[in-house]
Specification:
Strand order of the largest sheet: 1-2-3-4-5-6-8-9
Number of domains: 1
Radius of gyration: 19 Å
Bound molecules: ligand G3I
Number of helices: 11
Oligomer: single chain
CATH class: Alpha Beta
Structural class: alpha/beta
Strand content: 15-25%
Distance between the termini: 23 Å
Order of helices and strands: HEHEHHEHEHHEHEEHEHEH
CATH superfamily: Glycosidases
Helix content: 25-40%
CATH topology: TIM Barrel
Largest sheet: 8 strands, parallel, barrel
CATH architecture: Alpha-Beta Barrel
Length: 324
């Protein structure tokens, strides 16, 4: 391509994309090496992949990812340790609290411990907060937690336990709380209260991940409000799963020129904003490299076409001012 996103943002933050085993194969391999300096595994480090049956850990696929990353000077994010999805049929699926705590400890200790010193940051707890549940007047954020296997089996303190176990297993890794719809004020206030409270209790939580599954109607002001609010907690903020769907894309066709440009302008506005918060934002990671492999492929949210050529969005991020 002759330009590199990672280089263009070297003075600001890391630029990441997702990793799947297919990333090891060209042309994706070369593209990732050229454009990005950080990767997040899309699925291979989720609980059900890391521990497919109880007590059996599967390190082969992540090992290959780490080898690729280390050979190419690419940082790796661990995703994810505690989630309500893709977590198999045993983790947290018990009414015995002590057993659930042991499962939580065992999973985190083995996974994080195995990669000690090699993973820059972990998404420790993913999507634990309910949508549309306002923080109560008494400030008790635990009332806004999603009903998950971990909440049921352990109670709200599964969150702080997860962070403590992860910190014990790798004291140098940055530990994140990661969630979507973080530009929604209602949810952002709950997360803010939770992280503030946990930090006051000495829980090792170092960052907030704003996923960033937006569409072309996203309000830039809403994103800014949340970045600002989270930054004021004194934690790192990262954009962990950015993709901008074209809301009126039609599944069977490719994007029109107008749609590509409209998407590019939204990316440009967001990156202009991210640059302003470079002291707080450590990384911006895209959730997908080419449209056809995205989890929202019908909405063409990525920077690259199915043939790996860059879209307007790519050039807009390279030089946002040109598109504003
Ligand atoms: O691996 C199986 C395969 O064996 C099977 O034949 C096939 C048939 O459906 O399914 C495959 O599993 C799929 C898996 O992706 C791997 O491709 C699952 O069905 C599918 O549900 C799963 O989707 C992933 C999704 O998380 C699960 O919730 C997406 O790829 C992944 O992009 C998405 O990522 C999440 C983040 O982890 C957290 N934040 C939201 C984000 C988007 O949903």
């Amino acid at each position: 391509i002759g330009s590199s996103l990672a280089e263009a943002y070297a003075d600001y933050f890391l630029i990441g994309t997702i990793y799947t085993p297919n990333t090891l194969v060209d042309p994706e391999r070369s593209l990732v090496i050229e454009q990005f300096n950080c990767i997040t595994p899309e699925n291979i480090m989720k609980p059900e992949s890391m521990q497919p049956s109880e007590g059996y850990f599967a390190f082969t696929l992540p090992d290959a990812m780490l080898k690729f990353a280390e050979e190419n000077n690419i940082k790796v994010i661990g995703h994810t340790l505690v989630w309500h999805q893709q977590s198999g049929r045993f983790l947290g699926q018990t009414s015995d609290r002590e057993k659930a705590i042991e499962q939580l400890r065992n999973h985190i200790t083995n996974v994080v411990g195995n990669y000690k010193g090699r993973i820059m940051a972990w998404d420790v707890v993913n999507e634990a907060v309910k949508d549309g549940a306002p923080l109560p007047a008494d400030g008790d954020w635990t009332k806004c937690l999603r009903e998950t296997q971990w909440l049921r089996s352990i109670g709200p303190d599964y969150i702080e336990m997860a962070f403590r176990f992860a910190h014990e297993a790798d004291p140098d890794a940055k530990l994140y709380y990661n969630d979507y719809n973080m530009n929604d004020e209602v949810k952002a206030k709950v997360v803010h209260a939770m992280v503030k409270d946990l930090r006051a209790k000495g829980v090792p939580i170092h960052g907030i991940g704003m996923q960033g599954h937006y569409d072309t109607n996203v309000s830039i002001e809403s994103v800014e409000k949340s970045i600002k609010m989270f930054s004021e907690l004194g934690v790192e903020v990262s954009i962990t799963e950015l993709d901008i769907s074209v809301n009126d894309a039609s599944v069977s066709k490719s994007l029109t020129e107008e749609q590509e440009v409209r998407q590019a302008i939204v990316y440009a506005k967001l990156f202009k904003l991210f640059k302003q918060y470079k002291d707080n934002i450590v990384r911006v990671t895209f959730w997908g490299t080419i449209d056809s492999k995205s989890w929202r492929r019908d909405k063409f949210p990525c920077l690259f076409r199915n043939d790996y050529t860059p879209k307007e969005a790519y050039y807009a991020i390279l030089d946002p001012e040109k598109y504003l």
